[in-house]
Every structure is written in structure tokens, then in C-alpha cells.
Design a protein that fits this description.
This protein is α+β, with helices and mostly antiparallel strands. The chain is built from four helices and four strands. The chain starts with a strand and ends in a 5-residue tail after the last helix.
Length: 106
Amino acid sequence: MRIKSELLWGESIRDKSKVYDLLQTKKLPFGYYLLLYTKEGRLEFIPAVMQSNRYHMSRDCVVFGIAHDKKEAQCMICNILTEIYANHTYDSVYDYVREVLGEPVC
């Protein structure tokens, strides 16, 4: 699992640098959620405490966003999917993530 230096942030997160540092050291408190883009082209979100789980550590995926709670993570994913499928702004999840992150992923 890789962590991008440029992340999408949930609206309720105020101190981004502190949260980012905790994310890097895998010490985020309970309640935060990570938005992932997988090698298979899927968007997922997982509780941040799962970041140190062996399964997630070995996966070929990219952390591209962080939310303060589950509801915010769901809203962020919903907004992304709306941009892709309802508004037809992007052709695929890959195109969205590539443009948001500014480089190819996975």
C-alpha cells in the first residue's frame, strides 16, 4: 500500500499536516478512513486502523484520500462516482484518479 503525498481530504479534517504525519507512521486514531484505488481499478475505503493489517500492507493499491469518519468517506466516494458516471466528466475511475493525483497510479 502506497500513500500519495497529495491527498483528497475530508471537509471535517482541520490539521492536515498532523493527520498526514500520523498516517505515515500508521498511528491514526480510531475513526479515520482511507480512500484506496486498487490495481483492479476499484475505489474502496477502509478504517485507518486496518492500514497495518498484513493483507492491506501487501496489496497493490494507493491511498489517495482520507476522511474523518465513515459517513464522510461514503460521501467522498459517492461524489467521485457521481463525477464519473452521472456527470460523465471522466471516462473511468482510473482517469479520475490519474487527473486528481497528477500521475499514473498502480
